[in-house]
């Protein structure tokens, strides 16, 4: 500690110790970076600082025109002044707009430079071995914490002269529940917390605004399906006692499961019609276009933020190597720019590290898939067990008799398997998080951006498989390969493959999505709030640094988990929206709460984070684009292979008229019978033979046909229609997405012209300032020359 603090003072940093008021064993070391040292490191970090107020007219975007009426009043939060900026140079200090030395560097910039110094100050030197960085000292317990200070209390306005009270303003105009309808003061968020947190809340707010459109259309489709469910021909025939009541269906498992009448699925059929209708098809296509518009307009809005926040050229000029990377640079390699560069490992060593990381990630993904297969086998085995014992237990138990109609083998199997899946997911989540961080540390990325991008890809791939595997199984695998009653398909030769519920797999997929989305959102917000409240009490009247020490640290990964939560939600909204049109509405409600909960957390319950520069949302942008592309295929496949829309269309246009039917007009009447195949009970085993012939849902030839129980011509018509539908819809939607992406430029043309104009004016201002400086410097020399020249007719002018 003494060596480290001595290193800081050698670098010009001022330190002051302060004894804790509430904890006698704690000592606080206040770090102050003088103006001269700030100037030195501002040049090292290529920080862009103001040279002159910007008097150009600002371009107003369409997004801002729509949302400006919901922003906080400018009388409360003043608009940030705009300047022409340039990378700082200490020898050209007079070129910059230094109205007040104390205000020249904003608190966020000061904190960033102070943390840069702390991250690179050495604390131990032994020969050529140098150990440095506050992070290692924090990990070793030499210091308990290192953090910048809040400027005031969040709920009481400071009376100190010169205090901007930005934390107080952010709480009242942003984090407080009364401000739920207001747009976010992004400029103040960026000024107080830095560009990285500012760009996250800008993305989250933009995503939430775009969700309002998707939620409105999805709600309209849901209302359409709900109001037409009773009039659907499908539900009418299923619920009709003369049609569905006369059809006895095959049992869903061997020997034990009973036979059942089709009209027992009346309510589930009505629920199916709420989501399985033509409105859902329109909504799925709309969402494919919506996601493209969202991503393209976000790029435009992000370009405006890059311009307004001076991060356009950040990555190329400012980002420095991580201290952990610099400490291990022992090899030299040829750099095409600098000719010589030190790196921590050879090309062979880097290849070995990357290969190790990829193989570890694949192992964990396969482990998740294995756990999903294990849960499926559990479902198959327990369904048989519950079918054998549960009904008899309920029948002979008077206490459980009222629950007989509700506690079914399907429900018991689903609940227990969901609990097991949840436990497995949580265990794998906790273990894999540590493994992913270890792998990324082992790969040793050069910059913090590269580190976060590498960790992001690993974690998202894992979470993608973890969260979506059950939905993919229900949507595309469950009930697809089950054989027929006389010859079912078995897993491992022992467990009969799982069939869809009577209401269809689409209903089960809808239920799965609604439970996962709602439960995940509620649990995350409650957990976030309760953990913070349990650890943080009310602010006492003690020094600012001691109040902040009692707050919660943000953590090394910062916004990583916030982004991950939202991107997983984005996947639920886009990948499976054809089965659940209310997904955007649930996401909208969650995001309205999420914005305020995160704002409340950052403003009131957490220590002030070290401000960081950020140009965009990083690796999350290509991940979102990949999800958007995959969403087109998944929604087309859900409509084609999971819903009954294509079989209904095939029956209506082909099989309801001659030569397959006696009718002369296209109709849906008789679709139920056409979707069922007859099975003779003589072909069952003796232990499960009923007294009547029973149908089952499939398109197969009837008994007595030369190819009995094989797929009928109806089946091949349906398969051809499904494939044709998927190919045509995919190509139309992908072509539309391509056209929209081409027509909407990433950067508005007006903004491009404004950036060029500002760069030109910046060069002119710097040039004129340098000439003026040169004249002032040479004026004494010119005056001396005039005094020494004897010829009065010679005139020297500078």
Q: Can you put this structure into words, describing what you see?
A:
The protein has 798 residues and is mostly helical. The strands form eight sheets. Strands 1-2 form a two-stranded antiparallel ribbon. Strands 3-4 form a two-stranded antiparallel ribbon. The two termini are 56 Å apart. The mean pLDDT is 82.
Task: For the structure shown, list the relevant keywords.
798 residues; mainly alpha; two-stranded antiparallel sheet; two-stranded antiparallel ribbon
How are the SSEs placed, and which strands pair?
Elements: H1 2-10, E1 14-19, E2 27-32, H2 35-44, E3 48-53, H3 62-67, E4 83-87, H4 101-104, H5 107-120, E5 122-126, E6 129-132, H6 134-139, H7 166-175, H8 186-193, H9 195-228, H10 233-239, E7 248-249, E8 260-261, H11 266-275, H12 278-308, H13 314-317, H14 323-327, E9 331-333, E10 341-343, H15 347-395, H16 409-443, H17 448-476, E11 483-484, E12 487-488, E13 490-491, E14 495-496, H18 505-535, H19 544-549, H20 560-575, H21 583-605, H22 620-642, H23 645-655, H24 671-674, E15 676-679, E16 694-697, H25 713-743, H26 749-788
Antiparallel strand pairs: 1-2, 3-4, 5-6, 7-8, 9-10, 11-12, 13-14, 15-16
